[in-house]
User: Fold this.
Amino acid sequence: MRGIYWGLCLNCGGEISDEQLLQNGICERCLGDAKGLRGWRRIQKRLRENGRLYFAEEILNFHGRLRDFSSFFKRALGQRMWSLQETWARRILLNRSFSIVAPTGVGKTVLGIIFALYFSNENKRSYIIVPTGLLVQQVVEKIQLFSDRLGINPNLAYYHGSLKESEKREVLERIAEGNFEILVTTDRFIINRFDLLKDKKFSFIFVDDIDSFLKSPKNIDKILAVLGFNDEIITSAFQLLDLRTEANRLAKMGKSAEEILKRIEKIRNEIEFYKSRNNIGLLVVSGATVKAKRTKRIRIFEELLGFQVGFQPEFLRNLKDFYLTAKGDVDAQVLELLREFGGGCLIFVPSAMGREYAIRLNDFLNQNGIRSYVYRKMDEEILERFRSGEYDVLIGIASFRSPIARGIDIPERIRYVIFAGVPRMEIPLSWEEYSPTKILTLLRNIRDFLDSDQQDEAGEIISRLRKIVPISKDLREKVKVAIEEGIQLEGFEEYVRKTIFDARNFLRRIITPKIIERIMESKEISVKKENDMFYLIVSDPIAYLQASGRASRMFAGGITRGASFLIVDDEKAFYSLQQRLKFMLAEIKWSRFNLKAAKRYFEKIDEDRRIIREIREGRISKRIKDYIKTALLIVESPTKARTISKFFGRPYKRNIRGLTVFEVNTGKYILTIAASMGHIYDLVITEGFQGVKVEDDKFIPIYDFIKKCKKCGEQFTEFTSCPKCKSSDFYSKGDLIRALRE
Assistant:
């Protein structure tokens, strides 16, 4: 034994040794001699026999329910749950709403269907929402198949456009009467028939393809209503969002937000009180990617249900990065690569060269027998034609805003990408700009060329600009008018006006022939002159990562292998790209193009696509499907938790008993990152000598949760009130442990 911990016994909440913690988490006083005692059922039986079954009963009952659902799942599907599915099942059984962002083929929808069947056995009502009528029919077929295997007959209602008119009338009558246990519809049904749903209460709602669902933002209000929230509480949640925005605005201006924070706390308590008095349903939203912006309505999920809608990580990649020097005719080199490696390719042209070049390249490829298309905006029909092989290639701009660089997720089809030139931007070297984002980009790129005192001043302005970006188009226009007409604004708007005004004046002072000459002599940035205007030519590493990442996407077997071919038409831009990518993504390695090596690698690329096809056809092994697992990482500070989570893409947050955790997909793991907010335990002072006792010539420390008084800030252990001011209102790390256990 190396230590004793107070308050950690799962059953009585008393003290427990480190040995017993590692064994089963229940102390010797409760369990007695636990040697050879294995399994939660036996532990529960022993505790009951000893007359000491306390807090552990809830935990043991949960494990029993998980075993029951696992058996139910296996009977329905014919195989056990995979690691990811079991993690999601635990959350559902704990009645935690959450977002699933995971690749196609890991069993998101199957889990939702089987839970709807499981809850129907408990007389709970479920609602499955899918994007199309075809998917409604497919879900219904699975429900019927699983029901036959389970020997149950749930009261199922479903609605889609292909039903006969008589069938539609019958289903609508049943829905109006509440005569169903499981309802399956498209998301359009909520919009068109909400009057039939608004007085219905659902215990479990599963939304498949959250992107489609969120195309109508008011669907969020409707879902919250059928989960059990009334209009008053939903309105309060919107007020919370406004108040948080106002508090952040005041903080940026260095002003006190104390009164607003009190109002936030009051509304927060009212919402929690409402939830505790009403049986709020459970919401699970899912998708292979989530492209929706974090609008005000989407953020309401966090306020009312304790989770953010998740996002697909953008910088997870399993790519071979090839480069080849431009030989004069870049178009001909692109054609040569396409003829060598075939279809399933995306081509990106530099944003500095524009859409006109993309169109010219497309015409050239079409004339040479390549079925290509310039992809200008999100178009499901074009994507389907590309997916089916009707198009070999899609062409677009290498920019993080480009729909081809950020809006396509077709792992079974996209094998490689070609960059017809180094991804790069043109930034006007001018002080005439009013957009704080563009001013910020310019300052970041020229700061290193300034004198030391100017660099310090630039740093201060950059810091101020970061506090105000992004701003709305309306505010930008208002600020522009105010600056041009010499008008002062008020509050935050005046802070924005002053920041942009100072930044423009600073640029006017520093953009001189001397600075332009320094930039032209650099290794990384080129300067071009056009119509008496100078432009910086700067590499765009974000565009490269996002665009090349289309060929390396997540699937049930991990991350697909892909290839990227970069035709270097600007040596300075390529050098800059390499340096910036090293900073952003240390493991990236560039390989000079070699045809034999590339062909060998394409064998692995095509093997991954074969696996994806087998997954979708249901012919893949369990070994592959259990590739992605879950893990909990505990760090000391919230800042570290947030920073680490961002290494893998865009994390999303969940709130568990007041603890904010960040969740992100690393490719092999769904990683949950939580912060302990410093140390969790400290020595007690009333046992042994300052919390250390001696037994059998061994020193044994005794620990208790750290507590901190809310009134005076005193930190202490053991006592149930503050030893300094006697207040019984304090924070305890015991709450953190309970949240981590959950």
Notes: The chain has 30 helices and 30 strands. The CA atoms of residues 112 and 273 lie 29 Å apart. Residues 426-538 form one domain.
